Amino acid sequence: MIRQYELVERVKSYEPGADEKLLNRAYVFSMKAHGSQTRASGDPFFSHPLEVAGILTSLKLDSASVVTGLLHDTVEDTLATLGEIEEGFGSEISRLVDGVTKLSQFELQSDKSRQAENFRKFLLAMSEDIRVLIVKLADRLHNMRTLNYISKDSKRSKIAMETMDIYAPLAGRIGLHSIKDELEDLAFGELNSSARTSVLKRLEFLRAEEGSLVPRVLAGLNQTLKVAGINCQITGREKSPYSIWVKMQRKNITFEQLSDIIAFRIVVENLEECYHTLGIMHKQYPMVPGRFKDYTSTPKPNGYRSLHTAVIGPERQRIEIQIRTKTMHEEAEYGVAAHWAFKQVKGLGDGSKKYRWMRDLLDILDKAAGPEEFLEHTKLEMFQDQVFCFSPKGDLIELPQGATPVDFAYAVHSDIGDSCVGSKINGRMAPLKTQLQNGDQVEIIKSRIRAPSPTWERFVITGKARASIRRFVRFKEREEFISLGEAIARKTFREHDANFDESIIANHVSSLKGLDLKDVFAKLGSGELTSHKLAEILFPTRGLESIRNRALSFVRKRSGEVKAGDQGVPIRGLTQGMALHIAECCNALPGERIVGIVTTGRGVTVHTIDCESLAEFGETPERWLDLSWDNTSGINKVHIGRIDMVVVNETGALSDVTAAIARSQGNITNLKISSREQDFFELIVDVEVQDIRHLSEIIANLRLVQCVSRVKRNRH
Ligand code: MN
Fold this sequence. Notes:
By secondary structure, this protein is an alpha+beta fold. Helix content is 48%, strand content 16%. It has 27 helices and 19 strands. The strands form 5 sheets. It has a 5-stranded mixed beta sheet with strand order 1-2-5-4-3. It has a 5-stranded mixed beta sheet with strand order 11-15-13-14-12, with no helix packed on it. Helix 1 (4-14) packs antiparallel against helix 2. It starts with a helix and ends with a strand. 36% of the residues are buried. The site of manganese (II) ion has 4 residues, from loops. Manganese (II) ion is lined by residues 48, 72-73, 139.
């Protein structure tokens, strides 16, 4: 384990102004917080954050990052809270620790490799500060170094797979090559240990055969450059087993053909010396054609700069040579980390440290040359408008910023969207219109009935969700209209003493403008086609009256004009033989207080006592007749009550309305939508009722229906 003072010394070696006390506090805080926890290796858990901090010092990261490394597991794995960290270490560090904690919570849960690209994007998007990502990579690196202590095979290979698919490419993308190489090699050993073993065996065999090849080549190169007066450092190394393996696969070549198993790196002072050294190499040793690449004038998209060439070296062996300056070397090994540390050491103002990180990353991505890299770059910018959320199974769903659980549901599957009734975000019930945040885990609560609400349209933002909701609402509405229309059609048949027969309607379909039966019902249900009109088409010879007229003028219906006192006239107070009308201005219903107005030659007109048209008879009291309904007549006459309603425009509203009317034993004879807005629609409904109490009861029942916003009786 690294000692406390060692860690501080390491940081101070490259950041002389580092806050020593802060580092010491973090060391102690983490050690105390992790207490007696242990790792799979049996080591105290604290050794892990300490090693992570150590890796960060080798990358020469700033003290805030090193402190974050020490604290990175305290919030997730111990009783420590983010609040305590903010209090003890300030807001910058608590923000960094929070970022790392969040990343850790969303480790890829399955081996769905198609998601790897998405997940890499997600991690980048989540890492507002690039240091968060680097701490996470250091964390992963130490976990990979200690992977062999995990006993469960499946767990080990899952972690290795993630490392290969996600973390190693991410490290490469931000230029951390040393970490990328090590992560890859560790993962390779876990995932394909037999391949790695054979590569190693082969290397060993070559080493045995060639003897100490690397030192001899090294000596030869050194001699050549010394003679030329170049001051430089030369290192030689074998390539990593994984990169050899990949090359063998990709280029379909055998081990013996791999010239660049051995690579040499020459680090010089400045760019001029780079080209000078290159010239010496090509002059001294035969150059292998097609292998020279100048990444100093055209850097790789991730910022990598170096000269590459291959020659037949001092030992008559093909070797690869990289030539670069010190700065280029640091950048190649440590990517943006080096970039940043370098600038800081040079004392560039550190006022906007955190932004510089991001800017550096974008700078590098800016250098993207090819269309592919350019796309890569634009994608990164697009992250700003996206949120990445998880299903309970760990699937990653990419959504536009501002998306809601309903958008999420439809993004998973339209069936899930259609049957969605509620949502849990990070395990808590949340309104469906909640805007999702990066990393939210979203669980959709489904009902067995598919019933998306039209009100969702007001807050969904994805096209898929909106289109699906509209389609469903239209479909549902039509179904309602069809069933309502069929009921009206049945009623029309009854009114004409005919048995309901769909084929009669079908036979008249031609005169119904080629509509099919369901269309006819739908039009009938929506009020586009009245029952009156339908009766005219179906029963043209019967001299029709509309259903409503027939029902309203029950008195006339019997014998044209009915004489008072005839059986069945339920009004008392009339002189025998008087003609009777129910005035259409108020459509009095049994149970209402009524008066009659006598008109010479036309009999008695019945009004409700509060009817406005009574005003014109105020001067002629002699024409008024005191009437009342005869409740004892015992005849259940049918009357029509008309109701005006304003109803919320949502799925199921019409069926709620008709169900409420049916509950009160009312029978709908006609229904018309008089106006329709986005939010509400107005309905006129004619209902068969026994008396005013019956109508009042229906109205009261309608007022109980949630989607009904206003109900009143329509007297006209
Ligand atoms: Mn950790």
